[in-house]
Specification:
Two copies of one chain form a homodimer.
Chain A (H helix, E strand, L loop, with lengths): L8 H7 L6 H11 L4 E5 L2 E4 H17 L8 E5 L5 H11 L3 E4 L6 H11 L3 E4 L17 E4 L4 H6 L3 E4 H4 L15 E6 L9 E5 H14 L7 E4 L6 H14 L2 E4 L8 H8 L3 E3 L2 H9 L13 E4 L4 H11 L2 E4 L1 E3 L2 E5 L20 E6 L12 E7 L8 E2 L3 H7 L5 E9 L5 E6 L3 E4 L2 E4 H8 L5 E10 L5 E9 L7 H11 L8 E5 L23 E2 L7
Parallel strand pairs in A: 1-11, 3-4, 3-5, 5-6, 6-7, 10-11, 10-12, 12-13, 13-14, 25-26
Antiparallel strand pairs in A: 1-2, 8-9, 9-19, 15-16, 17-18, 18-20, 20-21, 22-23, 24-25, 26-27
Helix pairs in contact in A: 2-3, 3-4, 8-9
């Protein structure tokens, strides 16, 4: 009845089994390769043994303070710093639940997230203190700062500790939760409505990360250029737990820097990086260099890679771009396979060994190959997807109808089962009864030789439904005018897709994970080029 | 990716497709075989055309009164009467949601069910009026009685109509909901906790009933001896919709009567009956008759048939007993196959074509063949299971972890995929660290030559956990003593299973669907035989 699944190589090697909790993986890893480098930040290195010592001390601190055990939730509100690892894994080794908050959140939203989840302890940095809501009214009784000032220690109306104090506690022998037990609470950055608090089990990280590392043939000699924040699922699972599962190293950076990227690769000898589609576009727009093919980098993990860029980019930089599809609630829906170079361009791969994927029409019936519909998924093993949305059971039930997880994403599958992502369904623009995929439109714009980056949104139209607006960032020293972009569009896309509004910006707004913040573009400023005013019907 | 499923024969023949809503099936059936008998009650018969006329009139009445459309919920609180069909199907043909309440409920519980579901119209019988809660405070504004008295019409503080008035409305052209749309709200008779309101889609009835009829090879010449009430999933799906899907007839009886059963079969020429395990036991305990093999009855649909009774019963009465497994939330998990006589005794069959079945351990991992665990299931097509529990999303999420429906039932599967039901997990008795299946113990007791019926429950023990109590009904003119049953148990079961308390009753308490009401047996009355007092350790 239940199919037998291929063994999960890295976990089998480390633990002799296919499912695990994060403390199990850490205990085994620290024992197996204690002297291997886990983390590099600037000029400082931590071996797996050193890192595990700090992790166990933070766990010990939590136990001393009564924050150990599954009913406790420890919140962090940190940028990319080494301490984020000790707090994250230390919380799990205390058997507690980890709540990593996006460092970009502020005020009411932050207050709401803390109150909803019931965290009593918050770890952050001193520069964040002025952005925090009233902590005691959110239920926080202990504030830990990685760099507290004397003033903060003396004047805040709450107990303030430094991370160093916490890390000087007596180490605790790690608690070993079950693989299916609740590990973290992740807030999804939904574009509309209240953020959802996703309840993630341990095995979601352990087994999925091991599957990814195995499929990409990563090993203990790999170094991950880690610029994605640790409050993002890809920062945790793809970028961190994959390395812990095989004993590789993480070289941490505060963010993605287009100008410093290649020198960072050179200094860190990094072999892997996560490059979202716009990262690839930015790197591609740099002038070619004689050293392009001589870097240590060998794998770029990405999603939604522009079709035309894929092979030329690989060729120019002598790297392998691996596409992957998944989401906070359910990873890794497709798993790249480094041996399988037959993946059709534009596809994000086939269903991973632990998942079933399908395309459903609006009646939840399978769509034929090639026909777009909603991407839906089911796990073939346990503990590989969210347990549900915290304090929000109704959206969970809606998302799980007919016992399929409904991603809300639009895609299609070919006859061989390769998945093609079309768009986030909530990003579909509707203009005069036609559905327009912002993702498709953006990919056409990126073919224009002068366009470095772009974003397409729908603007409410006086005619009802929406008009299309394109925001564009040009490559260095280009001076293309909106009307030229407009003509390019008229030449290269269906008439109903051609943007009415076109604006050229010096840069597009990005959030902390490098995604374009489309909500900031949902306006038509004075002076924006308008095809209707420009005389076109 | 998605497997292709075998066509659903009866729906293909009727509608040319595999999924349907109840009004679609009725429209097609009334057109296809208008003169075929749908219902027989006492000496009255209704053809499909006549029945459909009444159904469309009741729908028309609802539309006239503003109760048509998916936001309206029509409640019924009826025994087995023909009117229950017109109300049920008429509600669907008006596009409204049907809420069939168990006629045995009373007072607070009934009031809670009406309030929770938001029904505004209630159909019942005059003798039920004194048992009703205050209807206006439950939100009911119209009461329809099948037999209203003049006093009730004049004195009730709410509008009272007769069903005949409703059925004289102008017929409505049926609304055609989607197969996946909400059809009924069914309250499950959970033994503990608040009843759950199960939201059922149309296709749950249509496709599953057609699958059942096809697997059992039922056709338009079949007559169903219909004694199960219409507020029970088996009364609706197995007993009614199966016949509508193939154009068979339903012969309605108010309840199961051991003494009248065979004469009812004779008069009705019934070919099918649903016989719960205790029904089989009761019929078996009658003295053999020369006419046992000469009845029209050819199929008995049952669940949990005592293993030793199966083949002898079939042989004695020249019938085929078909075992089936499912539940209100998800039917038909196993589908019997009349051509497959290889089903091992004691098994309730293999997964039906539309479902995946598995046995999970407590970590939601598959148990090996032969090892008991929780029975879990997934649908392979849409609209075949509940949409969720109404106003109770959290239990739905708990029941749907890892995107499997968790039945809470214990069972095992053999190498060939045959399912063996062991027990309802909430009925497991725990005695001195041993789990005891009441179902297994009861099946052993039924092997005693003098025992006609029995029920086993757990009684809180002074030693902690539970002691076992057996309540027994003997066959006619037997005078077996508790101590003799006790000795039989000591000879035939593990020591820890042997009941401490044994009581002999003239009859066991049954609810309206013939199930033994175990809650009424959870006591140790004065004078009940007690092995400890009787001198045994």
């Amino acid at each position: 009845m239940t199919v037998s699944l291929p063994p999960v190589g890295p976990l089998r090697q480390l633990l002799g089994k296919d499912d695990a909790s994060i403390p199990e993986v850490w205990c085994a890893r620290a024992k197996r390769t204690p002297d291997q480098i886990f983390l590099v930040r600037d000029d400082v290195r931590w071996t797996y043994a050193e890192a595990f010592e700090l992790i166990c001390r933070f766990a010990g601190f939590l136990r001393e303070r009564g924050h150990a055990g599954p009913e406790n939730r420890v919140a962090s509100y940190l940028p990319n710093v080494p301490e984020a690892f000790w707090v994250w894994f230390g919380t799990h080794c205390a058997g507690s639940v980890y709540l990593p908050l996006n460092r970009a959140h502020k005020g009411v939203l932050l207050s709401d997230m803390l109150s909803r989840t019931g965290a009593r302890i918050l770890v952050t940095e001193s520069s964040a203190v002025s952005e925090l809501p009233d902590l005691s009214s959110c239920g926080i009784d202990t504030l830990i700062l990685i760099d507290p000032t004397t003033k903060q220690r003396n004047e805040l109306p709450i107990e303030v500790l430094s991370v160093d104090e916490a890390l000087s506690a007596q180490r605790m022998n790690p608690a070993i939760p079950k693989p299916g037990a609740l590990a973290t609470i992740m807030f999804t950055s939904g574009t509309t409505g209240r953020s959802k608090a996703v309840l993630q089990p341990h095995n979601m990280y352990c087994r999925n990360a091991a599957r990814l590392a195995e499929a990409c043939e990563w090993n203990e000699r790999d170094v991950f250029h880690a610029w994605l924040p640790l409050y993002h699922i890809a920062g945790q699972l793809h970028q961190t737990m994959s390395m812990v599962s095989v004993g590789g190293a993480i070289c941490q950076f505060s963010t993605f820097s287009r100008t410093k990227f290649w020198s960072q690769i050179e200094q860190s000898h990094a072999t892997i990086v996560i490059g979202l589609a716009n990262v690839l576009t930015l790197l591609w727009s740099d002038p070619p260099s004689i050293r392009d093919r001589e870097r240590s980098l060998r794998t770029i993990l990405s999603a939604a890679v522009p079709k035309d860029l894929h092979r030329p980019f690989e060729e120019r930089f002598a790297v392998c771009i691996m596409e992957q599809y998944g989401m906070t609630e359910m990873e890794l829906l497709t798993v790249p396979n480094i041996r399988d170079r037959q993946v059709p361009l534009g596809s994000c791969g086939r269903a991973g060994p632990d998942f079933e994927l399908a395309i459903f029409d609006e009646d939840d019936k399978p769509a034929p190959p090639g026909t777009p519909g909603e991407i839906v998924a089911r796990p073939k093993a346990s503990g590989l997807m969210m347990l549900g949305y915290d304090d929000d059971a109704l959206p969970t039930v809606e998302t799980w109808q007919n016992l399929w997880f409904h991603t809300e994403d639009i895609g299609y599958m070919d006859e061989e089962g390769f998945l093609f992502f079309v768009d986030r369904s909530r990003h579909v623009i509707r203009r005069r009864s036609e559905n327009i995929s912002s993702w498709e439109l953006e990919n056409i714009l990126l073919r224009h030789p002068d366009i470095a980056e772009c974003a397409v949104v729908g603007i409410p139209s006086a005619l009802g439904e929406q008009d299309v607006k394109a925001s564009i960032c040009l490559k260095p020293s280009r001076a293309t005018q909106p009307v030229e972009v407009y003509d390019f569009c008229r030449r290269n896309m269906a008439g109903f897709m051609v943007p009415r509004y076109i604006e050229i910006l010096r840069e597009l707004p990005h959030n902390h994970v490098g995604k374009i913040e489309k909500t900031q573009l949902l306006n038509v400023r004075e002076g924006v080029w308008d095809a209707e005013r420009a005389g076109d019907p």
